[in-house]
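Weekly puzzle thread! Below is a chain. First person to post its structure in token form gets bragging rights.
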Amino acid sequence: MNSIGRLVILVRDYEEAIEFYRDKLGFEVFVDSEAPPLRFVHVRLPKQKDMGIWLLQASSEVQEQNIGKQTAGQPCAVIYTDNFNSEYKRLIANGVNFTKPHITEASAEFAHFEDLYGNEFVLVELKEELVD
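Winning reply:
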């Protein structure tokens, strides 16, 4: 294996999901194509070209019931930043809901937020480089 390409997140509606991830979080849409009956929508952070999120519209009752619950209350992803305070303020200004208080530790600064469906993410600025 070489890399992870996409994290899959179930969505209720493509347009509302694109609007949230693009306009509130700052992702870019880099794939939006249709091959009926499917639509492929992939978003990514502009500086990270090799990893993204595949927004997948739920197509069954079971999938619809699991929108926002795919990780059973645990974070589905960690998003790193070089400037926590700037990103934190930008996301709050964009109406992103932070679900846990902003925490500063010796090695990191972080806070939990959710997308429009309740999927939890963690915004993190590492204070030191991680050692392999």
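Puzzle host: Confirmed. Bonus trivia for everyone else. The domain at 6-126 is CATH 3.10.180.10 (2,3-Dihydroxybiphenyl 1,2-Dioxygenase; domain 1).
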